[in-house]
Amino acid sequence: MNYTQTLEFLFSSLPAYETKGLTAYKPGLDRIAAFCRSIGNPQRNFFIIHVAGTNGKGSVSHMIASVLQQAGYRTGLFTSPHLKDFRERIRVDGEMIPKQKVVNFVDKHHDAMVASELTFFEMTAALAFDYFAQSDVEVAVIETGLGGRLDATNIVMPILSVVTNIGLEHTALLGDTLQKIAAEKAGIVKKSIPLLLGEANKAYDEVFEAAAAENKSKLIRAEEAFTCEPKGSSEGRSLFRLRRERDGRVFEAALDLGGSYQRHNIVTAAAAIDFLHEETPLSISRRAFLEGLRDAAANTSLQGRWQTLAREPHIVCDTGHNPHGIAYVAEQLREATYDKLYCVVGFVQDKDLAHILPLLPREAHYLFTQAQSERSLPAARLAEKAAIYGLRGEVIESVPAAVERARTLATAADMIFIGGSTYVVGEAL
Asked: CA torsion 250→256→258→259, rounded to 10°?
């Protein structure tokens, strides 16, 4: 098979949550564990930082990976979903896995993957582990796909487990309360392996305290380790003043990711890096820490996090897609300056729009659209639902056409926001 045929096999033959939704979700670790044993357990060949959470886990994973790269470690990064290219999910020192490596892995293990009934995500995780081992990766940052306890990545044995925060998402699979979802995310905690909690919340703190106690794992609260004061922006970078609480040391940090909500993620990443330097074999200098943050997006090719696509009009996209993430987006939009706001938005069918749509600004003109995915909510239905909450505009069924329409409507002093779904952002990019 060539690369195109290989991707067609992966997306059509193996169940993929990204395209099929709930019907593709096959919880459990037995399949991925058995398959990885058959290929020599490649995930045991490097240090791992395991990252879960409702929002921010992608940004935090990329920040940590960038700092580790800057510190001189050969660094693997496994994230999902991708925006434009499947290979975005698997990177070594910021470079995507070569197409031929994907083809070779599938050719070699095709029959075993089919016989094992691996899901798309399980196959992708195994591919990442194998590629990292082949590439002599020294440390890898592994992001969970969905949940934690039954996520395919949970066969790893990390040196640090990270949970960024908890919000309501995938309630049909993970539970309908913050406590239930937290319990699923807390499933990544391993015996005697420290757990870092990014954002504390009385609604779920006890869940992580109990999981840490049961596993005799140290619980680190990022917000107690570092405080963060936003200091504006300069030359396209967000500026922050970080204070390390254990010794009062102050770091003037820059970050090439936009969005005021990154103040939460940078605290989580800073606490993780500080732990790795102080209590693991990894050594990370102050310079590597600051330079890694400064160039986090550039080093890892991260896209879609309050990313500016153009000026005059100011066009921004963001992959926030659940109530917790959309709340941050709405906050950022309130802080922005513009004459008129145009929002190109689309969602997948299983999103809890009753808790999302009320968060969006009513004064904006909406271009309701849908991405080319089986899971996309039809644009006309989205417009009907949005009207209930006072959100009005027009229906344009293709993302590129909706973006182009927004461009024709907007003046140089206006703003265009693109989001609601990772798929919408991916097509816009």
From this structure: -30
Q: Calculate the CA dihedral of residues 23, 370, 86, 96 and round it to 10 degrees.
A: -140
Spacing of C-alpha 57 from chain mean position: 5
Number of domains in the chain: 2
CATH number assigned to the domain comprising residue 165: 3.40.1190.10
Looking at residue 126, the DSSP 8-state letter turns out to be H
Q: Does some domain include residue 293?
A: no
pTM value is: 0.92
Read off the tokens for 102.
């994907």
DSSP letter assigned to residue 339: S
Element (H, E) at 310: strand 307-310
Report if residue 240 sits inside a domain. Answer: no
Q: Which of 171, 203, 222 is the last residue of a domain?
A: 222
Question: DSSP secondary structure string, 43-104?
Answer: GGSSEEEEEE-SSSHHHHHHHHHHHHHHTT--EEEE----SS-GGGGEEETTEEPPHHHHHH
Say whether the peptide bond before residue 361 is cis (omega within 30 degrees of 0). no
Q: Which of 407, 358, 411, 409 is nearest to 385 (CA)?
A: 358
Q: Please check whether residues 331 and 216 belong to one and the same domain.
A: no
Please enumerate in sequence order all residues whose Cβ is within 8 A of that of 354, keeping only pairs 6 or more positions apart, or say none. none
Closest CA to 140 of 124, 158, 116: 158
CATH classification at residue 316: 3.90.190.20
Note whether 201 and 324 are within 8 A (CB).
no
Instruction: List, for residues 361-371, the tens digit of each pLDDT value.
Output: 999 999 999 99
For 22, the domain range is: 3-222
- CB-CB contact of 382 with 394 (8 Å): no
Q: In what order do the strands lie in the sheet with 314-318?
A: 307-310, 314-318, 415-419, 341-345, 365-370, 393-398
Q: What is the mean pLDDT of the chain?
A: 93
Q: Are the C-beta atoms of residues 264 and 201 closer than 8 Å to each other?
A: no
pLDDT in the model for residue 23: 47
Pick the last residue of a domain from 198, 222, 246: 222
Q: How far is CA 236 from the centre of its chain?
A: 22
User: Does residue 138 register a pLDDT over 70?
Assistant: yes
Token look-up 């080319």 returns 372
Tell me the backbone φ, ψ of residue 345, rounded to 5 degrees: -130, 145
Q: Has residue 37 been placed in a domain?
A: yes
